[in-house]
């Protein structure tokens, strides 16, 4: 493979690998591939690195996996030199970290910003991808890696009148770079998922009045965010080898935490309540790790859900508001659990109103109000916390054509199909990072990103050593994997919720449980075994072999 872009022939630029996206996935992919001496180009539609943390600049944005764990582990020096200031770092700090990584490892050199990849077409004769960029230029590459992100395609709701609204409209997933000041304004926010729950308390402090339009109430656990002390940092660093090993190899979700060995119904009421209370006080996502059957057994799940509902009743003084905030229609944890700072408390403020748009859907947006149930809620600014076309949205925006001109969108019309979430049959040399069919959004995503990037790097190395030109998922292996992903999902309570894991937030999107729920540790083991067996389930070939097969 050429180490430099070749200038031979047209189109002018040829790379070994084109990577789409410069979030944590694309950045680490570039780092690893450059280490192999390959020519790599990263295209990013945004103006800088960081992906999620470049776009989601809304008030209150922060990670919900502790920063000491939600960080790269590939460089010992990096994890020793970067001091996280808080247990859950805020967005500006995570973005600074991404920029620090880009500078420290000299990554910008291989990146082109403000450039979207619009199309990728596989040329079967030359086994090469043509990649069309915004602006019309085309480059070619042997491999394409889609590091386009699971939550990167912000979803604008289709509500009548939105375009006529006179005030400013913001989307949490595409927030302006300059500060937004809500002082003295009546603000409306639509959506109460993770982003809504993080931003509501912060906006409420600034706005004259905040009206929260809620369709689905959420289970949310207090973050108990706090500054990181030097002693806490030291404790993590001293134990990093074991923490990182456990997260990669043994955990279900990429987070170091104790593994429960009991089910919720194995304890009596008082003991169970005390355990939930201790986790509530500790805060964070590990609330769901109190017992080992909360995602599996509805009766067990109900005990945790009831506990959180009781907390909402305790915190929220107005009984009608508390009732509206209590989630009842789905088991706890089957939608991504939210982590908040004073979310439920915020509804005790005199300047905050909750509006139920499940019972009274939004009829239309007027120039200065949101109309629901025949009532106009006057606002000066509107925040859309309406989430993303998750997991497949950013891939679907690219016109990807594989063998015989088949488009990936057509192939995935009934739901995404991949082998291991890494490749899709019929699309040779095209890799996905944290694609559907892998643990992805059910995990600490940096752990999953590192695993995928390392696996892809290894297989490219393997192909280079054997002078192989193409690799692609075999149809039978893919079908078996898709069936396995579905089968594992149906053994859990997850499919009971209308969640974005299921594509339920996008009208017309097929209802398929997209992430792999089998756990980060077991999934890694499967990927390693596949590799150890010479990449079982993937077809690899030299160009001349393929041609011979085609002629015979
Ligand atoms: C508000 C928020 C909080 C989160 N908190 C956590 C957390 O605490 N823990 C956790 O594990 N995960 C969290 N996540 C998930 C988060 O997305 C991942 O952790 C991680 O940042 C994903 O990195 P990535 O590189 O895969 O994707 P992204 O960070 O989404 O980056 C993908 C990049 O690809 C670019 N791109 C997409 N399509 C194209 C195209 N066609 N051409 C060019 N560029 C393109 C996008 O512009 C984007 O910059 C959070 C997500 C959100 C939205």
Largest β sheet strand count, sense and barrel closure: 8 strands, mixed
Counting DSSP H or I runs of 4 or more residues, the number of helices is 17
Distance between the termini: 28 Å
Name the average pLDDT.
Answer: 94
Low-confidence region ranges: 1-9
* Helical content class: 25-40%
- The rounded Rg comes to 24 Å
> How much β-strand is present in the residues?
15-25%
Tally the beta strands.
20
Shape: globular
Give the names of the bound compounds.
flavin-adenine dinucleotide
Structural class: alpha/beta
Sum this structure up briefly.
By secondary structure, the protein is α/β, with parallel strands linked by helices. The chain is built from 17 helices and 20 strands.
Keywords:
alpha/beta; 8-stranded mixed beta sheet; 5-stranded parallel beta sheet; 17 helices; 20 strands; 32% helix
Write the layout of secondary structure elements.
Blueprint: E1 14-20, H1 24-35, E2 40-43, H2 52-55, H3 76-81, H4 91-104, E3 111-112, E4 117-123, E5 128-133, E6 138-146, E7 168-171, E8 186-190, H5 194-206, E9 209-214, E10 220-222, H6 230-238, H7 240-249, H8 269-282, H9 298-315, H10 319-325, E11 338-340, H11 343-346, E12 352-356, E13 362-366, E14 369-372, E15 375-378, E16 381-384, H12 393-396, E17 399-401, H13 408-411, E18 430-432, H14 445-465, E19 470-473, H15 475-490, H16 520-532, E20 538-541, H17 543-551
Parallel strand pairs: 1-2, 1-6, 2-3, 4-17, 6-18, 7-16, 8-9, 8-16, 9-12, 10-11
Antiparallel strand pairs: 4-5, 5-6, 13-14, 14-15, 19-20
Helix pairs in contact: 1-14, 7-16, 14-16
The structure holds flavin-adenine dinucleotide (FAD).
């Amino acid at each position: 493979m050429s180490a430099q872009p070749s200038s031979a022939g047209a189109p002018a630029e040829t790379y070994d690998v084109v990577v789409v996206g410069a979030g944590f996935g694309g950045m680490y992919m570039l780092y690893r591939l450059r280490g192999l001496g390959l020519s790599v180009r990263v295209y990013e539609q945004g103006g800088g690195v960081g992906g999620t943390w470049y776009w989601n600049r809304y008030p209150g944005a922060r990670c919900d996996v502790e920063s000491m764990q939600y960080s790269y582990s590939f460089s010992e020096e990096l994890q020793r030199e970067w001091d996280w200031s808080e247990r859950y770092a805020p967005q500006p700090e995570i973005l600074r970290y991404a920029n620090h990584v880009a500078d420290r490892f000299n990554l910008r050199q291989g990146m082109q910003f403000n450039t979207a990849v619009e199309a990728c077409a596989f040329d079967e004769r030359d086994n090469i991808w043509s990649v069309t960029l915004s602006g019309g230029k085309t480059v070619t590459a042997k491999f394409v890696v889609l590091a386009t992100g699971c939550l990167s395609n912000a979803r604008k709701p289709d509500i009548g009148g939105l375009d006529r609204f006179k005030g400013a409209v913001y989307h949490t997933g595409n927030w302006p770079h300059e500060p937004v000041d809500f002082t003295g304004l009546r603000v409306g926010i639509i959506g109460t998922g993770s982003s809504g729950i993080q931003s509501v308390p912060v906006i409420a402090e600034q706005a004259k009045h905040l009206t929260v339009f809620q369709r689905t109430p959420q289970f949310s656990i207090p973050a108990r965010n706090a500054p990181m002390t030097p002693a806490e940092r030291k404790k993590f660093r001293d134990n990093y080898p074991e923490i990182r090993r456990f997260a990669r190899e043994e955990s279900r979700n990429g987070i170091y935490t104790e593994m429960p060995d009991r089910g919720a119904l194995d304890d009596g009421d008082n003991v169970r309540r005390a355990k939930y209370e201790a986790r509530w006080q500790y805060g964070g996502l590990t609330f769901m790790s109190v017992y080992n059957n909360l995602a599996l057994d509805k009766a067990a799940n109900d005990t945790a859900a009831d506990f959180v509902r009781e907390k909402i009743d305790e915190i929220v003084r107005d009984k009608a508001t508390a009732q509206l905030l209590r989630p009842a229609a789905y088991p706890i944890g089957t939608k991504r659990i939210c982590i908040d700072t004073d979310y439920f408390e915020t509804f005790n403020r005199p300047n905050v109103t909750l509006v139920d748009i499940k019972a009274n859907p939004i009829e239309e947006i007027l120039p200065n109000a949101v109309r629901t149930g025949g009532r106009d809620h006057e606002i000066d600014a509107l925040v859309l916390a309406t989430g993303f076309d998750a997991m497949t949205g950013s891939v679907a925006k690219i016109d990807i054509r594989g063998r015989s001109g088949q488009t990936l969108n057509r192939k995935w019309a009934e739901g995404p199909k991949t082998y291991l979430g890494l490749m899709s049959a019929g699309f040779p040399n095209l890799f996905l990072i944290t694609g559907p069919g892998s643990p992805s959004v059910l995990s600490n995503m940096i752990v999953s990103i590192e695993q995928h990037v390392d696996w892809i790097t290894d297989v490219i190395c393997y192909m280079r050593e054997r002078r192989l030109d193409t690799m692609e998922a075999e149809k039978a292996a893919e079908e078996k994997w898709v069936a396995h992903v579905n089968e594992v999902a149906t053994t859990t309570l997850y499919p009971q919720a209308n969640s974005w894991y299921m594509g339920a937030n996008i009208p017309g999107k097929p209802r398929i449980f997209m992430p792999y729920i089998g756990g980060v540790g077991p999934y890694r083991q499967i990927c390693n075994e596949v590799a150890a067996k010479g990449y079982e389930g993937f077809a690899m070939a030299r160009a001349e072999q393929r041609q011979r097969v085609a002629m015979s």
